[in-house]
Amino acid sequence: MRNILKSFLEPKAETYVLPDTDDIYMGGEDEFVPLEAEEVVRDPLDITIGEEDPAEADQEPEESPKEPEDGGPVRYAQLQAELILNQAREEAQQILDQARDRALQEQEEIRAGGRDEGYREGYAQGIAKAMDDAVRDREATAARLEQEVQAFLEKASLAREEMLLQTQDELLELCLSIAEKVVRVSLKSSSEVIVRMIQTATERMKRQEWVHIYISGCDARQVAKISPALTGTLGALSQHIKVVPMGDDEGGTCIVETPEEIVDASVSTQMSNIRSVLYDQIGAL
User: Fold this and answer.
1) φ, ψ (nearest 5 deg) of residue 246
2) With 0-12 CB in 10 A as exposed, 13-18 as middle and 19+ as buried, what is 39?
3) For residue range 91-142, what is the model confidence (pLDDT) as tens digits?
4) What are the beta bridge partners of residue 137?
5) Residues 6 or more apart from 265 whose CB is under 8 A from it?
6) Homologous superfamily, domain 190-284
7) What is the pTM of this model?
């Protein structure tokens, strides 16, 4: 009997395999109550484990080890299992918390990286858009300025042409007026001028029956002394030549009359003809 009790109190050490946590049901179970030692002893057991050693039978029973409080080995194993299970749960919770914290940290890093990347992309897009807008604005400004410059040049060209035409007319009138004054002053200072005018007016005429030359009164005194050159020119033109003074006409009057034609070689008439020719030439340009 002692051996039976000993084998029960000191069971053989075997490898203990913990069950899965899913298979353990902690709540609602009746608390395990181990049997008292006396009850185990009083129960009639007919268990034979080998042959009893006589020497062991003669020996005094050894003092049994102190049992764990509140029960036997099964309760002890149950407590150990609960302790291991709690530790496993705590470790699992720690691992879960660490994984959750790491996931939150990675999520925040990804979110921050996304913000930074979005900021960089937005900044780059903003710079590119600003450059494109600046190029378009510069091109539009250049085109507008080019149009304005072209319009200004066209207006300036028209104004220059108008000014040139106006100035040209004024310059032409000024030149003609100066030339006419020079001729009239020359008529007053020299008789050769009126003689040259008469020669120019009659040099292309053929011989006529008579010739009348009309000059102003102020120039008649200049022609009183006809030069030999004028005498030869008029003698070849006709045998009947008459110089007729025209009263108070302005100097430079010279009109030659023949039976066939009348030639006005006066200074004013010649200047008028020159003016018409010059204006016709300017208008043709």
Assistant:
1) -110, 45
2) exposed
3) 888 888 888 888 888 878 877 777 777 777 778 888 888 888 888 898 999 9
4) none
5) 197, 198, 200, 201, 254, 255, 256
6) ATP synthase, E subunit, C-terminal (3.30.2320.30)
7) 0.41
